[in-house]
Inverse folding.
């Protein structure tokens, strides 16, 4: 059974850096698949942030490019998200997910429970 | 940034059939990218409901079906049940090299 669990601070000050980690169990990151981050805003809209392949290859939403970094640590079977220079607009429920392979690879078939991050002074 | 548009809400009586539209553009759905659908209950993470336009993961009832045509896609729920009351989101990929989600639809069972 594939399980993902997000961890990180729930409160971040404006202009600072948001850092989250996703621990994966039941599936080895090194074995394949894309691993990604999705966030859900308080108004319920979903936003795809980006993904990483076990090799370290990444792809990000263009409007977040330059402010977002996804990295992987295969030895710990975990991957991470960093968002720089946060503003209150980054307040959201952040999910880590396992995406697919091949055609339609961006589908997320496994999700963490989500972690709420609030940006406020 | 491109967007996928869904109706904010749809409703139906138990046993009825409802459909949810997902309208995109020539740079995403119309470009041939697959559409996936998710179901989300309050307080829980979304769950993959349909992938690759019309495929159901194991365990998803065949009351749920997907289709795609041109720049749009649809999710149909047949024999609507009370437990189908949830939010539904479509997802596709855009030629700007980003996956994107629909605006979401709340399904209410009358």
């Amino acid at each position: 059974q594939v399980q993902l669990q997000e961890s990180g601070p729930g409160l971040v000050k404006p202009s600072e850096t948001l850092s989250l980690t996703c621990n994966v169990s039941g599936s080895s990151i090194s074995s394949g698949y894309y691993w990604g981050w999705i966030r859900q805003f308080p108004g319920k809209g979903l936003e795809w942030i980006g993904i990483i392949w076990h090799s370290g290859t990444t792809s990000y939403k263009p409007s977040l490019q330059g402010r977002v970094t996804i990295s992987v640590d295969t030895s710990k079977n975990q991957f991470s998200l960093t968002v720089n220079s946060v503003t209150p607009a980054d307040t959201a429920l952040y999910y880590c997910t396992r995406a697919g392979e091949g055609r339609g690879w961006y589908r997320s078939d496994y999700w963490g429970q989500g972690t709420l991050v609030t940006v406020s002074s | 940034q491109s967007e996928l548009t869904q109706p904010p809400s749809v409703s139906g009586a138990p046993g009825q059939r409802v459909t949810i539209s997902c309208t995109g553009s020539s740079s995403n759905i119309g470009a041939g990218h697959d559409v996936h659908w998710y179901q989300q209950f309050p307080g829980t993470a979304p769950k993959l409901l349909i992938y690759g336009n019309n495929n159901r993961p194991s365990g998803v009832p065949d009351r749920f079906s997907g289709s795609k045509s041109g720049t749009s896609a649809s999710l149909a729920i047949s024999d609507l049940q009370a437990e189908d009351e949830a939010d539904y989101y479509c997802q596709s990929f855009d030629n700007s090299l980003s996956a994107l989600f629909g605006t979401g639809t709340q399904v209410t069972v009358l």
